[in-house]
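Recall that a protein's primary structure is simply its ordered list of amino acids. Everything else, from secondary elements to tertiary packing, is in principle encoded there. The following example makes that idea concrete.
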Amino acid sequence: MDAQVQKQQQDTLARLDRFSYWTDSNFRVPFTQFRFGLSPLIGLVPVLGDFIGLVLSLYVLYEARKVKASRGVQLRMIRNMLVEFVGGLLPIIGDAFDAIFKANTRNTELLRSWLHEQLETEPPRRFPWWTLVWLSLLIVLLLLGSLLLLLLIIP
């Protein structure tokens, strides 16, 4: 793949990581590992906040379209956005749902996985030859030990 295209895709992921951080994970609840972002805070405004959150989430889809993500990836992103939007509409628990579901982070990870497949940056899986050799030697030694033990026990 062209180096310029790879750079563009890596830049896209960097922008989306920052966006997801701010919308989904910017703040930490003290004395916990739980993080939330601006999206659930915006969602505190009844109905209007959820619409604003949905519009903000469209940015991830926009970036996915720019890098020509597959139709399947885009449909899963839309599904995630709608799940968060509908879940956020629920009174009281909707805001907690918004903080937990994190559609922007999910969608960024979807795009990241798809781009890694396109960039072929996942490390190639090598066959574990050394493990095979050592396990084979161990099995041979165990078999020889068992055979020797049987020969000693049976006269």
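Residues 128-155 form one domain. The chain has seven helices and two strands.
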